[in-house]
Design brief:
The protein has helices at residues 17-30, 42-45, 54-59, 67-74, 78-90, 102-109, 126-130, 148-160, 187-196, 209-217, 244-261, 270-279, 314-318, and strands at residues 4-10, 34-39, 94-99, 115-118, 138-142, 168-173, 200-204, 222-226, 281-285, 300-304. It has 335 residues and is of the alpha/beta class. It has 13 helices and 10 strands. It has 2 domains: 4-261, TIM Barrel; 270-318, no CATH class. The two termini are 47 Å apart. The strands form 2 sheets. The protein has an 8-stranded parallel beta sheet with strand order 3-2-1-8-7-6-5-4.
Length: 335
């Protein structure tokens, strides 16, 4: 099964529609399946006195600690997102977004996207989750900063609002930008899949491509990775994102893992079938066998040969008597 790869632009357009369009083109050239954005109204999202999160302070050089001021600079209008979705369609890459307030969520739900993503920070937001009663899209629920109980709570709210559980995918992630390898705990993605019986994926905030490759090998059907035009740009997420060159390598590594994984069916490949002809053992006489003598371990052996009775039929041959005389090294024949 092909892994869905999401290029998470988020706010890496820095509030500029031109940058958003360029990111769409670049993401498409990298092989991304979806380009994802974050939709919000700053005044609905944070209190004007709210401080930046620690990772936002760490990743930005501007002196102001105001989260509101930061977000206001990164905000795009609803009209902008209509154009962004059209630009995705023009570039033949799919649009996806997450909304961070109810007004933005209702706008997003009316865009009729294939998928809508619920951010990790909204996993316990009851009125937000209940708004999905109007959702006709598939849902991706991000589970950063959460426990199994938190996930179960969110799923109960969504399903009680009329959402089919089968239309929900759960994304494991670590909400640190970038996160250390010791924080990833990929085995919990498997726990989530086994516990809730839905498709799972991984939202990768690490700085190592091996992490998402491991996630795919462990059953992730969706991979999300932050994407930027330039890691040196000012903004909260650029440093934890991949630029165009690195995102291309990232996509190639995931597609390589898919080839390695293959299918769940155990069968010989075409090349193995050819090799098998030369290494399979057939049954030979190890000493002289006279007509009417019973075949046994005492008068037969196996050797590689392109013709003859396959060694897997050894017990069948041992139940038979020789139909003629055999000399040492002769291929055994039976009726």
């Amino acid at each position: 099964m092909k892994t869905i790869i999401i290029a998470e632009v988020g706010v890496n357009h820095n509030g500029c529609l031109k940058n958003a369009f360029q990111l769409i083109k670049e993401a498409k050239s990298c092989g991304a399946d979806f380009v994802k954005f974050q939709i919000f109204k700053s005044e609905n999202l944070v209190d004007e006195n709210a401080e930046k999160a620690p990772y936002q302070k760490r990743n930005m050089s501007e002196e102001s600690d105001s989260q509101f001021e930061m977000l206001k600079k990164l905000e795009l209008s609803f009209e902008d997102f209509v154009e962004i979705k059209q630009e995705c369609e023009k570039n033949k890459v799919k649009f996806m977004a997450s909304a961070f307030d109810l007004e933005s969520l209702n706008f997003l739900l009316n865009l009729n996207c294939d998928y809508v993503k619920i951010p990790s920070g909204e996993i316990n937001n009851v009125p937000y989750l209940r708004e999905f009663r109007n959702c006709n899209s598939k849902i991706i629920l991000s589970t950063g900063m959460s426990t199994i109980d938190d996930i179960e709570f969110a799923l109960e709210i969504l399903t009680s609002a009329g959402i089919d559980k089968k239309s929900i995918s759960l994304l494991h992630c670590t909400s640190n930008y970038p996160c250390d390898l010791e924080e990833i705990n990929m085995n919990s993605m498997v726990t989530i899949r086994e516990k809730f019986g839905v498709d799972v994926g991984y939202s990768d905030h690490s700085s190592d491509n091996a992490v998402s490759s491991a996630a795919v090998a462990m059953g992730a059907s969706i991979i999300e990775k932050h994407f930027t035009l330039d890691n040196e740009l000012e903004g909260p997420d650029h440093k934890a994102s991949l630029n165009t060159k690195d995102f291309k390598k990232f996509v190639r590594s995931i597609r390589k893992i898919e080839k390695i994984l293959g299918s769940s069916t155990k069968k010989p490949t075409d090349s193995e079938k050819e090799t098998k002809k030369f290494v399979e053992k057939k049954i030979f006489a190890s000493k002289q066998i006279l007509k009417g003598e019973k075949f046994s371990n005492l008068n037969m052996t196996t050797k590689r040969s392109k013709s003859g009775i396959n060694s897997r039929d050894w017990d069948l041959v041992c139940s038979k008597e020789a139909i003629k005389d055999f000399q040492v090294g002769d291929l055994i024949e039976i009726e």
